[in-house]
Known about the structure:
By secondary structure, this protein is mostly beta strands. It folds into two domains: about 5-25 and about 30-415, Distorted Sandwich (Beta-galactosidase, Chain A, domain 5), CATH 2.70.98; about 425-525, Sandwich (Immunoglobulin-like), CATH 2.60.40.10. It has five helices and 34 strands. It has helices spanning about 5-10, 15-20, 40-50, 65-70, 70-75; strands at about 35-40, 80, 95-100, 110-115, 120-125, 135, 150-155, 170-175, 180-185, 195, 200, 215-220, 230-235, 240-250, 255-265, 270-280, 280, 295-300, 300-305, 310-315, 325-330, 335-340, 360-365, 370-375, 390-395, 405-415, 425-430, 445-450, 465-470, 475-485, 490-500, 505-515, 515-520, 520-525. The strands form six sheets. The protein has a 16-stranded mixed β-sheet that branches. The longest helix has 12 residues, at about 40-50. Mean pLDDT is about 90; it is low at about 10-30.
Amino acid sequence: MIDRRTFLATAASTATLAAMGYLPTASAAQISFGKRTPFSFDALVARAKDMAGKAYQPPKRPPQDILDKIDYAAHGQIQFKPEYAVFADGPGQFPVTFFHLGRYFLSPVQMHVLTRDRNGLTAREIVYQDDYFNMPADNPAHQLPAGSGFAGFRFQESRTADQGKLDWKKNDWVAFLGASYFRAIGELYQYGLSARGVAIDVAEPEHPEEFPNFTQFWFETPKDGADTVTVYALMDGPSISGAFRFDMTRKADVTMTIDAALFVRKDIARFGIAPLTSMYWYSEAQKTTAVDWRPEVHDSDGLAMWNRKGEYLWRPLNNPPRTMASSFSDANPRGFGLLQRDRNFDHYLDGVYYDRRPSLWVEPTNDWGEGAIQLIEIPTDDEIHDNIVAMWVPKAPATKGSSYRLGYKLYWSANEPFPPALARCVATRLGNGGQPGNARPQGVRKFMVEFLGGGLASMPFGEKPELDLWTSRGSFSYIFAEPVPNGVAGHWRAQFDLTVDGADPVELRLALKHAGTVLSESWLYQYHPTPNLTR
C-alpha cells in the first residue's frame, strides 16, 4: 500500500519537474485510441453485477521486474506531457492528465473517452504509450510494453476561468491514484485526506482488509465552459464489484455527486460505505514530550456527525495505544465528515501546510437504512500513514449475493457545508488534574474543552453556561466554565477533572447549556488513561 507522503509528492510533482526542465512547451499531439464501443451506465451496472456472480480474476499486470525498477526516484522523473492532455484544446474547461505505473502503483487502469451522438454514448480506450510521458532516456519505464495502462488520472485546473492565475499544466484539483483512493482540494488549494470507493474488513483481526481497485474509467466529453465533469468507474476486488458515476464540480471548493451500485461477491465482516481515510499523529490534546519539533501534525482533527435526530456531534481524533473501533448508531444519517478545524499556521509551523488541508463531508442522498458511523483509529508514530478511517457501516450484514444502490455527495472544503447554529468545539486540551500549588493526585486528569460562537456570543453579562457532563466510568470534580481571555466574543472553555482507575478507555460527553437551552454541539471523547500519570 502506498503511504500518503508518496501520493502527495507524486500528485504535486509537476511544478518541480517544470523547474528541472522536463516539461516542454505545449504543441499539437495525438492520443492513440482503441476501437469504438457503445457505453451506458446501466450497462456498466449490469456488467458489475455479472462479475460479482463469478470468481474474482485479478487484473493482468505488466512485468513485475520492470515495475519494481520504477522506484520513488525513477517515478519522480516521469511526468505526463501536457500537450497530450485529454480535452486540452476543448471542449470543456478541465484537461485530464495521467499518472504512470511504478513500484508503488502496480495496478493498471484502463482509461476511456466518451462522446455522445444521437445513438447515445460511445467509448474509445486511451492506449498507453510512453511517448505521452517525459522521462530521462535511462528511466526503466521505457521498458514497459505499449498498452500497459495507467496508474490513475487527475483533472487539471481550468484553461479558461480565472482560478487565481493558476497554470492548468501545473495545478490540478482532483486525483484518482492507487487502488480506489481519490482526493480533491478545497478552496485552500491543498490535498490532504482521501476518500475510497468502499472499505472492507478494516480493523477485523481475522479478516485481511481490502480496498477494491477501480480498474477502468470513462470520461464523458463535457460541454464547453461547464464547471462539472462526469466520470464513470468500474470497481472490482475479491469481495465485491461495483459501478460508480462521479459528477464533480469545481468552484471555490469541490463537490462530488456519486451514484454507486455495489454487488457482494462473498461475505464481508465489516462493510464500509463512503469511507474517508486521514492522518492524525498528535495535536494540542495529545503529544508525547519532544516526539517532534512541530506543535501539531494531522490532516484532520475530528469526526463531525449530524444524526437523524438533528444532533451535532464532535469527536476529536486520537492516536490510541492500540487499534480502536468506535460506533455511533443511526438510521439515515444527515451527514458526517473528517474535518480540519484548526486553521492557525502557528499551530503547525510546517512547510506542507497542514493548516490548509481540506475537510471532507459526506451527505447521503437516498435511503441508507439502519447502521452506524464507525471510526477506526490506528496507532502511528509518523505522519506518513493514513491511520484514521471514518465510514458508514450498514446494520444488516453484507452477505454474498447482496447488493446496494447508494447516492451521496462529498464536499471537499475548508469547513463543513451545513454548520450548526451552535457553538463549535475548537480545541481539546488535557493536563494533570488538581490545582497549582498542591500535590497533583494520581489517576486524575484535567480537561479543557474550548467552544466558539453560537449562543455563547450573546451570553448575558455575568452569567455562565452550565456543563452537561457524562462519563462511562469515573467521577468528576472542579467543574466550571469561563470565557477564554483573548477578547473574542463567544469563546468559552469548559474545565473539569476526571478521576478514574485502570487503563480501560473512558467515554466522555459534554455540551454547554444555559437556562435549559443547548448552546453547543456535543463533544464526545475517548480517553485512554495512563495509570499513575503525574507529569
